Amino acid sequence: MRKKMISLMMTVAMGTVMISGATVVKADSDEKETVKLAVWSSGAADNFQKGADEFNKRQDKINFVVEMQSGDYSQYLGAKVASNDLPDMFFLNPYTQVQQFAATDRIVDLSEEGFATKIYDSVKDACSYDGKIYAYPMNLEMLGVYYNQELFEKAGITEVPKTFSQMKEVCEKLQASGITPFAATYKETWTLNHLFSCLQGAAVGDYESWVADMNAGKGSFRNDNSSLEFEFMDMMKENSGGNYMDADSTSGFNAFASGEAAMIVTGEFSLLNAQSINPDLQVGLFGVPLTENEEDAKLDVDVGICIAVNQNTPHLDAVREVLNYLSDNTDENGWMHYSADSMGAAPPAMDFTMSTEYQYFKDYKNYMSNNQTRPWVYSQLVSGAGDMIGPVIQGYFAGTTDMDTTLDQLDSKFSELLE
Q1: Which stretch is the leader sequence (predicted)?
Q2: Is 29 domain-assigned?
Q3: Residue 335: domain span
Q4: Residues 329, 292 within the same domain
């Protein structure tokens, strides 16, 4: 049921005007009220800062500050919770992390804010708890196989693979042409969470039942298609060049952007710096082909970032003004212009028109229109699952564990997490 939109205007005695869809508030004093948004480290830092600068330029009452956390974001949040010192606004992972913060009464119910009437119905579960919306789903992110169209053409590849056997043939053709098939990012565990989500979602099929069973303590990471998942990872290891465990996300993203590798299993964020490295890079996108059934090769699309509001913020009215700016999809020069309208940017979780459509974005829209998508299954598991899945999968990539040991570790560590 749609919620009515409430005004996000600050209840202060001052004049207001509208510029490009954003409210400009004229302050009575020279002192600005600071609103801080804590975000995790990413290649979008410059874009976020430009968006904040635009907001601050438009009015003289609020100082909107984006604070990039360069360390472990989970540790940062944990420390802030422990000291009861959360920032005014902060990034959360969708589903279980939002639910956890809402259940402990640490974030504001945002059900009546203006964005609640604009976001897609399909994303509301990602930011809700007990039937109420507790966070703004800032964007949708798409996990899959990004590929260099020019390198595919050079290797004589005319169609993207839709089955595992076709994927192996693609790797063979690339290798025969002297092209490294995959850019490695395996030194960092968070990238392996994303790979796991693509593989496990396809392997279990009925992911909703699997997630429910897992969170109820009745499921297992082991499934009828587990061997296919590990066969796919073996293929990646064999086709990621030498010393692939030394490659972190930055080196992997750069290797793909510079044409050193033809494919990368990741999200659109890997392309944020691509144009500065290779302005002519042409990138397409396809779903991870795990099985021999083409219908299983879906794109993994889900809310990537949720913005929550601190229940104890002393700047709630100012925060609402900022939130209105962040979620204005009609403002051609506002936040979405900087955060969602460039190579590698993730589209907002509401209707929005990009000024330029790249091939990977066209591919994404085709998957969406054909209903060939699934959510990120790992993000729907109980909070903390992402912190244990990646390191276990990393052990398999490093060759320290085999398939059975990896699956046993995943099950045992998840059971400990539930306890």
Answers
A1: 1-22
A2: yes
A3: 16-140+303-339
A4: no
Indicate if the alpha-carbon torsion angle 369, 210, 407, 248 is positive or negative.
positive
42 found inside a domain: yes
CA angle 388, 394, 399 (to 5 degrees): 135
Length reported for the chain: 419
Q: For residue range 213-253, what is the model confidence (pLDDT) as tens digits?
A: 999 999 999 999 999 999 999 999 999 999 999 999 999 99
Q: Distance between CA atoms of 263 and 350, rounded to whole angstroms? A: 29
Distance between CA atoms of residues 34 and 87, nearest Å: 11
**Based on the domain organization, do 167 and 56 belong to the same domain?**
no
- 112 and 69 together in one domain: yes
Q: What is the pTM of this model?
A: 0.82
Task: Write the pLDDT tens digit of every residue in 211-220.
Answer: 999 999 999 9
Within this chain, do residues 53 and 169 fall inside the same structural domain, yes or no?
no
As a dihedral over the C-alpha atoms of residue 226, residue 232, residue 236, residue 239, rounded to 10 degrees, the angle is: 140
| Contact between 388 and 412 (Cβ < 8 Å) | no
Q: What is the per-residue pLDDT across 186-207, written as a single tens digit (0 to 9) for each?
A: 999 999 999 999 999 999 999 9
Together in a domain, 182 and 296: yes
Same domain, 335 and 378: no
Burial letters 258-276, b for 16+ CB under 10 A, else e: ebbbbbbbbbbbbbbbbee
Contact (Cβ atoms closer than 8 angstroms) between residue 326 and residue 150: no
Is residue 77 included in any domain, yes or no? yes
Q: What pLDDT was estimated at residue 30?
A: 60
User: How far apart (Å, rounded) are the C-alpha atoms in residues 306 and 292?
Assistant: 35
